[in-house]
Every structure is written in C-alpha cells, then in structure tokens.
Amino acid sequence: MSDFVFEPAPQAAVAVRGTSALFPARRVYCVGRNYAAHAVEMGHDPNREPPFFFMKTPDALLPDGATFPYPPATSDVHHEIEMVVALSGGGVDVAEADALGLVFGYGVGIDFTRRDLQAEAKKLARPWEVGKAFDHAAPCGALARASEIGHPTSGAVTLDVNGARVQEGDLNQLIWTVPEMISGLSRLFELRPGDLIFTGTPSGVGPVRPGDRLEGAVAGVGTLSLAVG
User: Fold this and answer.
1) Iron among the record's keywords (predicted)?
2) How many domains does the chain fold into?
C-alpha cells in the first residue's frame, strides 16, 4: 500500500543510445549566453564574464522523434540548439580537474524559449520561469556514453528548420568549457547523479511555428528530430 496520497508521476528519464536503459533525470540546469555570437545577437557583451544559470523542470524533457506542442500564452517561441551533459556523479565545490569524472555522457537538446514572455520578465526584472520552464521546453535526444565517445571539445552544433540551416556553431566556441560549467554549478548547488546541463546555444536563434520540422545535431554526439505541433 502506497504512503502517497496519490500515485506519484513517473520518473523523468532520457534514453541511452544503443541500450534499453534510461537515464533518470533529477534536475535540468541551463547555462546562459555561452557562445559569444549568441550573446551579441541578444544584445549583450560577448566578453568572458562569470557564467549564469537557470533551470528547467525534469518533466519538461521531450524525447527524440516527439512532437513539441506549441505552448500557450505566447506568439514567439524560439529554438536554441545545445549540447547536453549528463552527470552520473555529483558533489560540492568540484575542482575543474575532477569535473569530467562526473560525466555519464552527452546528448543533443533544444532550449525552447517563449521569447516574448522572457523579454517581458527581463524588462520588469522578474524571474524567467514563464519563458524557459514551461511544459515540453527541454527536448533531449538519446545520450551517448562518455566511455564510448570521450569528452568532445570541438565539433559542429547545428539546427535545420524545414531543411534550411538556421543555427551553426562549434563546441570549441563555448565561452565556458564543460569542466568550468560543472565546477561553477557545484559552487551554487550540490550536484547529484541524474543532473543534466544544457551548455548554451550558438547564434541564429529564431521562431518556430506549428508544422515546422527541426533537425538538430552535435558532431560526434548525436542528433535530435522534432515536429512542432
């Protein structure tokens, strides 16, 4: 007999490439403005500043091949293609030299953003949740194990919408590296197995509309395909 007043929601999870195993998702962290060109297109200084973070909810994860339901209360939903880091270890005040030892693997994700709601929140100096943490806002493709692909530091990051290339960058353009992100996060939160980190998007972000088809990729890591419903 359950001690809960109603049945808990299923554990949020991400597929693991080449297996039937699932990666149980605990938290979804995101790094803001981690490519200089994207910082410029959003009207910010591209120089290297301390990283900042925001969060999405684990139940916002959406698998490869799914349909992203166009969300309510917005007319300006933007795509942001990113590499995702999945942790199988954790800690507090993790040294950069030890950070990659916490990594289970890597995937391809999209940080969907209700840009109009985010812009309004910024203008009023309010939190970003309504623009970033809405339902289905964190698609993530199957994870590739670090034990199989290593720890990529270069490789194309791309997104095509309806067959046209709209975003293109390279992992070697990240302002803050994966070890630096993990170490920085661990000074703010206790990291644990199951945490996911969306590492930032290259330039070229823009709107999606119902009927669009999105094809994202990170070279050496994987792909992510979605339809917009």
Assistant:
1) no
2) 1
Q: How many Å apart are CA 100 and CA 196, to the nearest integer?
A: 13
Order of strands across the sheet that contains 164-170 = 67-68, 222-228, 213-218, 156-161, 164-170
Q: Flag whether pLDDT at 41 surpasses 70.
A: no
Could you tell me what percent of the chain has a pLDDT over 70? 94
Cα dihedral 146→149→154→156 (10° resolution): -110
In a domain, 143, yes or no: yes
pLDDT at 44 over 70: no
Average pLDDT of every residue of the chain: 95
Count other Cβ atoms within 10 Å, centred on residue 88: 16
Mind giving me the DSSP string for 106-118? EEEEE--EEHHHH
Residue 103 sits in which domain range?
A: 13-228
Look at residue 212 and tell me if it is in a domain: yes
Tens of pLDDT, residue by residue over 110-140, are 999 999 999 999 999 999 999 999 999 999 9
**What CATH number is associated with residue 79?**
3.90.850.10
In a domain, 7, yes or no: no
Between CA 108 and CA 157 the distance in angstroms is: 9
Would 5 be classed as within a structural domain?
no
Question: Would you put residue 163 in left (φ > 0), alpha (ψ -120 to 50) or beta?
Answer: left
